[in-house]
Amino acid sequence: MPENVFAPWNDPAEKPLIQFKNVTKRFGDFTAVDDLSIDIYEKEFFALLGPSGCGKTTMMRMLAGFEKPTSGTILLDGKDISPIPPNKRSVNMMFQSYALFPHLTVYDNIAFGLKRSDMPKDQIDDRVQKMLKLVQIEKFAKRKPEQISGGQRQRVALARALAKAPKLLLLDEPLSALDKKLRQDTQFELMDIQEKTGTTFVIVTHDQEEAMTVASRVAVMNFGKLIQVDTPTQIYEAPNSTYVADFIGDVNIITGHAVGVNQTETIGSNDTETVSITWAEGQQPIIATTAQPTLTGKVSFVIRPEKLNITAERPSDASNAFQGKVLDIAYLGNLSTYHVEMPDGQIIKAQATNARRRANRAFTWEDEVWLSWTDTAGVVIAE
Amino acid sequence: MRRFTWFNATSLTLGFAFLYIPMIIVIIYSFNDSRLVTVWGGFSTRWYGELLQNEAFLDAAWVTLQVAVLSSLIATVLGTMGAYVLVRGGRFFGRTLFSGMMYAPLVMPEVITGLSLLLLFISIGLDRGLITIVLAHATFAMCYVSVVVSSRLVSFDRSIEEAALDLGCTPFDAFRSVTLPIIAPAVISGWLLALTLSLDDLVIASFVAGPSATTLPIKVFSSVRLGVSPEINALSTILIGLVTIGTITASISTKRAVLRRKREEQMAEQMT
Amino acid sequence: MNWRRISLIAVPYLWLAALFLVPFLIVFKISLSDIALSIPPYTPTLDLSEGWSGLRNMISQLDFENFEFLADDDLYWKSYLSSLQIALISTFFCLLVGFPIAYGMANAPQEWQPTLMLLVILPFWTSFLIRVYSLIGLLSNEGMINQFLMWLGLINEPLTILNTNYAVYIGIVYTYCPFMILPIYATLIKLDGSLLEAAEDLGCSRTEAFWRITVPLSKAGIIAGCFLVFIPALGEFVIPSLLGGSDTLMIGKVLFEEFFSNRDWPVASAVAVILLLILIIPIVMYQRNEQRRIEAEQ
Hints:
The complex is a heterotrimer of chains A (383), B (272) and C (298). Chain A has 383 residues and is of the alpha+beta class. Chain A folds into 2 domains: 8-246, 3-Layer(aba) Sandwich (Rossmann fold); 250-382, CATH 2.40.50.140. Chain A contains 8 helices and 20 strands. Chain A is globular and about 80 Å long. The relative contact order of chain A is 0.11. Chain B is mainly alpha-helical and 272 residues long. Chain B is 79% helix and 0% strand. Chain B has helices spanning 6-29, 46-53, 55-88, 95-107, 110-123, 130-155, 158-166, 171-200, 203-208, 216-224, 230-271. Chain C has helices spanning 3-31, 52-61, 65-72, 74-107, 113-125, 128-139, 144-152, 165-190, 193-201, 206-217, 219-234, 238-243, 251-260, 265-297; strands spanning 34-35, 42-43. Chain C contains 14 helices and 2 strands. Chain C is globular and about 80 Å long.
């Protein structure tokens, strides 16, 4: 891995900013967070991603101090933070509802935390002005929250949380109240601000696109447990489970039986092994490579629709090629998704970009087509 | 769509006529020159003049006002505390008993509340007078204040308080600088309700008031038992007038605030 | 738990315990005591100087005599029953008057709503006593109604309305009407207008749609309104004593007279205890209905 890439989690000398050590949180019978351990490093933009009720918000509220872990410890800078009340933590939070104080102006909202710190009075104004500038809302400083738009409120909430220069900023679904277009613009701005301030950000979201866009690492959660913690690329291209593969983006999951072919290759530093997967009667097995040695038995073969080629003739050089019939076409503008029915009834999705405008599309319903992919296009996951 | 039918129009007209005609008649007859309350003797404001000369009524009004101001202030403080405890207090020993005691006075017949408080004051040897009426009124009015304040507390976003804690407030500081300003309108309407309840109350005051302190409703009641009198008509007109002015002013000012907020929100949306 | 939280809970808690719970326990205790010619006019009293034995001594002297007396004397039976009857009949008429008003308000044009609301709330803030008083002049033999009817020639001599149970019904309906109108209006205004259109689209006539859609969906409001009228009407004192006649039996009035005129504190306390027992049922039912209403809204 090149030296200039930001990846403190791969450096054993780096000390984590936050450490969850076997943290469990129960509400009555319900276990929100289940024996969870994780390290988060300084300057990271860390995303907690999962469906509602997966425990991501509980983890954030434990960091903020609104909930105490039932067991386990949470360390910030190496110190246990559980006895510290929320108002004494150098952690600030941006709330999902923004939680702006309706009776205070934008300026006073941002100054609120500073007035309760030991910052000298004359420096407070400087700091507030700097924050107003950072999020570009200087014009609205004298307005009340109800006199500005939703996007502007979101900026005020961000500025207010950043004003005290916390070690750690928590963002609880920060963009969920904005419409799609504004949300996408704001995501880049958020990354920009994170880089400028150098603050560690932990974001909670259920929107996978948002997590993939902004985060340096994404933690996929379900039922109070971490399923996979990795960079967005790894999460998408090398999911460790069918759950992660299915949760992030569109995917074909084909179940089958793997047999090792004993053909070991060395690509870079990783040894890979080729396996052949029998998946349907009367079909050629799928040939795929995997980094996991001696993977045999019941497996899932996971492949993204855009990794498949769709052609009228059988391609000569592909490791895997299967014939099927076009069942449905979803035209999405930039690309089209073809639902292709295999002879055994399984449906495999393939995507093709619509590079040319108004070209006669190559395939239509009921056409016989060939789907093909290389042996490294998919991922093999043991069941 | 909803349709406003003739049936609706008729029932509204008749209904509001039923609600308002008795009071309008009282108002009209307060300007009647004749002492006979059923015969119109020409326009006059003499009963207002006589009312202002009536020492007994003025004394009672003064007592009532003192009681109302004192008891409503106590009720507002206690009711707000109680509402906060019920909505935000979490669990504590005897919470069910507490919420029961907060709500029970709302449905308790006034005769029972009055009787029980009187028996308490006698058994601890507290002399009946201004103090006992204040204590009694504060107790039942605090429950009304609590209902008004807690409905506001329930509806407002809890994370606003958490944000204050997150930004360095102690819980007490968060209540003072964030929660209280936000619930202030509800606290004020709770206070107005407590004030009105105290000004109005006859039954409880009849039990706990001693000979040294007579309130206006007690005075009015004993005079009304003897029948209709033009002085009471005049007094009623003054009270109805005050309430009408107060209610209309309050509703106009809230309406204005809502309109202003809507306008400002629209302007803000346009600027982005 | 810090001292601020403890005092926040303790202050209203102790206030209510001292001025609501303890007084009620005293009423209960006195209801089990005997009348005596002393100050206070009942026996036994708790002698705190004797400590535990004093308490035990007091308890041993308590009995249910007063309740037996209430059961034997048919005056009390009759007043409980007649209170129930008056409260029930008045609640029914209140619904009859209140529902059309609430329905009219809900159907009225949007821009009228705040004004109509104001018109219902205004009497609510106006002194209860004055509103009852305003009926006296209207209902008396020389009152407006009789004058008007005689002027129309419908009657030759005045109807006696004041000082009868009819005046009590009218008084309760008149003063408690806003309590009926407001909860019904609140449920009607939330009713989705397209439900009625859907019903008509599926073949209901307008009247049928009203009975099959509007009425069932406003049930929670109707029930709430009925309890809000029934519960206070049952213990009413001012209306029967100002508008009712000497033969109008209502328990609130009986209690008041027993206490002040007869100075029989133990019997007055027993009357109060039984009134409360009767009230517990509708109060619990009302609370359940409210809970359901809140849950339905969420």
